[in-house]
Design goal:
This protein has about 120 residues and is mostly beta strands. The protein contains no helices and eleven strands. Strands 2, 4, 5, 6, 9, 10 and 11 form a seven-stranded mixed beta sheet that branches. Strand 5 and strand 6 form a beta hairpin. The N and C termini lie far apart (about 40 Å).
Length: about 120
């Protein structure tokens, strides 16, 4: 069992930056690929980024490529999402998730956090 708790969301102006964190419980953090997903009001949840078990491989959604950076610290069992050049369309609840296999599909994730809200004002 893995428990995930996101933090770092908030209100930011367009063009600004935020860093999200996801603290994971348990000593098996390094056995999981980790991902970020988001859900905007009235929309389906969508993939944002994923990182492999020791961080050598990353995949990003086209909409965030070049602006967002996913990283992890296995010693601290924490996942991060650095978000730069934020746009109003980035407004969403951001979720971290863990999976045994690296995947960009939300249906392949095994564990989810409860999310943190990011609001980008224009």
């Amino acid at each position: 069992q893995v428990q995930l708790v996101e933090s770092g969301g908030g209100l930011v102006q367009a063009g600004g930056s935020l860093r999200l964190s996801c603290a994971a419980s348990g000593r098996t953090f390094s056995m999981y690929a980790m991902g970020w997903f988001r859900q905007a009001p009235g929309k389906e949840r969508e993939f944002v980024a994923v990182i492999s078990w020791i961080g050598r491989s990353t995949v990003y959604a086209d909409s965030v490529k070049g602006r967002f950076t996913i990283s992890r610290d296995n010693a601290k069992t924490t996942l991060y999402l650095q978000m730069n050049s934020l746009k109003p369309e980035d407004t969403a609840v951001y979720y971290c998730a863990a999976s045994r296999v690296i995947t960009t599909s939300q249906y392949g994730m095994d564990y989810w956090g409860k999310g943190t809200l990011v609001t980008v004002s224009s």
